[in-house]
Amino acid sequence: MPEKLNMIAINKEFKYVPQKLVYHSKENRTSFYKAVETKTGRIVGIKTVSVQSPKMLKDFESEINILIGLEGNAKNIPTVYFYDIKGNDITIVMQYIEGDTLAQTIEKEKKYCKNANITTKNLYRLYSLANVLGDIH
Questions:
Q1: By C-alpha distance, which of 89, 24, 23 is closest to 50?
Q2: pLDDT(38) > 60
Q3: Burial of 117 (0-12, 13-18, 19+ CB in 10 A)
């Protein structure tokens, strides 16, 4: 779906019209859209991911729950409104926040990491932990 900005229907009640493709990666099969919910006109972010294994699905669902746990702890952590898993495809509807994506922020911060072996996933976890502890504002 990354090339086309078609209507995204999560269920009978919630339908979204993508306004802009913000991010797409063929490598990790992820897309992120800025969209409008048709019923209320609310601007949302929609992330779609196609995972390749049950372990990846479990890991991604854990990350969604981490994100839900971080809501309200930092201004740049979006509220997750809804997520749906169908087979190996995950769709997350969340608050849309203007600015850099988490991946872009992490990429900018990599240069400050003394240990070049820190992975993006571990850096994300460090950001998450720091937000929970209140160290990042």
A1: 89
A2: yes
A3: exposed
